[in-house]
Specification:
Elements (H helix, E strand, L loop, with lengths): L28 H28 L1 E2 L2 H4 L5 E2 L3 H7 L2 H34 L2 H16 L2 H11 L6 H8 L13 H28 L4 H9 L4 H12 L1 H16 L3 H8 L4 H4 L2 H11 L3 H31 L1
Antiparallel strand pairs: 1-2
Helix pairs in contact: 1-15, 4-8, 4-11, 5-8, 6-12, 8-11, 9-10, 11-15, 14-15
Length: 317
């Protein structure tokens, strides 16, 4: 069998221009579409931040709200805060509360997500509906329910613990700081677990079954498959969830404020959010409150920096 060689391509004359593929030039339309959103974001974030920084260098109280010029005090607000032992107690309390709640929320949310993989369709749908209702419930409405549950005289929690042999008749959960933060932790974790569970479950559904089956054939147990196959596969998602959870738990305000109003000792249960509120709105010292807010911003950056670094490293890998 003989093969015929392809005919050579005829050469073009030198005076015939060769048409080259044109590069698509990006016009100004994409930038014009992004510009309004960018400007709005910069205005909504940059102006309050700059205003907060400027306010922290002034003595700004109730008189300044009625037109009196604010006196420039420089770093005096920051010096007063650094030398204030109570502020450091609040910072330590806030960091411990934040990290503990974030850790418990991640463990429970991940556990619920793993359990949902093992559930049948109807049961999983029922659990997801319950989680969605708990997540969608307004904060103040849910806090009202929790206050009744832990009520001193009529609370279901005291009634249950008393009937199983405990001495909780008339026990007040909000007077002691330890029990106060126990109640606050229960509420915060209960409201945060649905988000972690839904997001983790969505990530788990994307894990390749071939990997888990191959690990099982190699003799890996359930815990080994979870540790060496499943968790590394969803690590980027877990890092994002942990980052958001730390930020949200560091900025907890409504739960603590409402529980303080319900009977908690304010000075012994203040976190940074409620401390800023009571300095500014409650005490009229807006300059010091702004300085504490900047301190809280720096603390947020410090706590979230390791997660951001891990996320960037994971993206590079």
């Amino acid at each position: 069998m003989t093969t015929t060689a392809p005919a050579p391509t005829p050469a073009l004359p030198d005076d015939v221009p060769v048409e080259r593929p044109r590069r698509r030039r990006a016009g100004r339309l994409p930038y014009a579409l992004v510009l309004p959103a960018t400007a709005l974001l910069a205005l909504s974030l940059a102006y309050p931040l700059i205003r907060q920084v400027v306010l922290s260098f002034h003595e700004y109280g109730l008189a300044q709200q009625f037109g009196q010029p604010a006196a420039w005090v420089g770093l005096d607000n920051y010096r007063a805060l650094v030398s204030d032992a109570y502020l450091w107690n609040v910072v330590l309390r806030t960091v411990v509360f934040c990290l503990f709640n974030a850790g418990v929320t991640m463990l429970l949310g991940m556990g619920v997500a793993l359990l949902m993989r093992l559930m049948s369709g109807p049961v999983r749908l029922l659990v997801q509906a319950g989680l969605l209702l708990a997540w969608a419930m307004p904060v103040v409405a849910s806090l009202t329910v929790w206050q009744w549950l832990f009520d001193t005289q009529y609370g279901v929690v005291n009634w249950t613990l008393t009937h199983i042999g405990g001495d909780y008749q008339g026990h007040s959960w909000l007077l002691e700081p330890l029990s106060f933060f126990f109640v606050a932790t229960v509420i915060v974790v209960w409201m945060s677990v649905p988000f972690v569970a839904f997001t983790s479950y969505a990530a788990l559904t994307q894990v390749s079954e071939d990997l888990t089956e191959a690990a099982e054939l190699d003799g890996a147990g359930a815990w080994q498959r979870l540790r060496h196959v499943v968790l590394p596969s969803i690590r980027p998602v877990l890092l994002v969830i942990a980052l958001l959870q730390v930020i949200w738990d560091l900025r907890v305000f409504t739960q603590i404020y409402v529980l303080q109003k319900a009977g908690g000792v304010t000075r012994d249960t203040n976190l940074l959010g409620t401390y800023i509120y009571r300095l500014g709105i409650g005490g009229g010292d807006f300059g010091t409150a702004a300085a504490v807010a900047m301190f809280m911003l720096a603390l947020t950056v410090l706590l979230t920096a390791p997660y951001v670094r891990l996320m960037l490293k994971a993206e590079e890998d």
